[in-house]
What does this fold into?
Amino acid sequence: MTNSKGGLRQRLRQFDQTIKGGEGHGGARRFVVRYPDPLQLEPLLFVAVRAFDCDVPSNAPQDLRVMGDVAAFEYRCFADFVDAQGHLPEFNDKARSPKK
It folds into this structure.
C-alpha cells in the first residue's frame, strides 16, 4: 500500500531497489531473506496492483477519503487472502518472515 506523494510508481521502485541491495521497502527486505538472488524468480512472478486517484499532499476531504479507501482496500485484500489460505501472505507476515 502507498499513500506517498510519489505514488505507486515510487513504491514499486523502492521494492525493486531494495531487492537489488538497497533499503526502504520492508516487504522486499523480507523477500531477500528467503530469496537472496531474486532475479532467478523473475520469470515466475507477477505483480497485481489497484490504483486510486487522489492528490496525496491535499487535505481536501475527498482526497483524505480516497487515502482511507486505499488503507481499507489493503486490509480487505489481506482478509480475503486469510479466508482463502488460512494465513497472511508470506512477506506481509512479520512473524513468519523476518527482515534482513
Remarks:
- The two ends are 21 Å apart (CA to CA).
- The mean pLDDT is 85.
- DSSP finds three helices and no strands in the chain.
- Residues 7-92 form one domain.
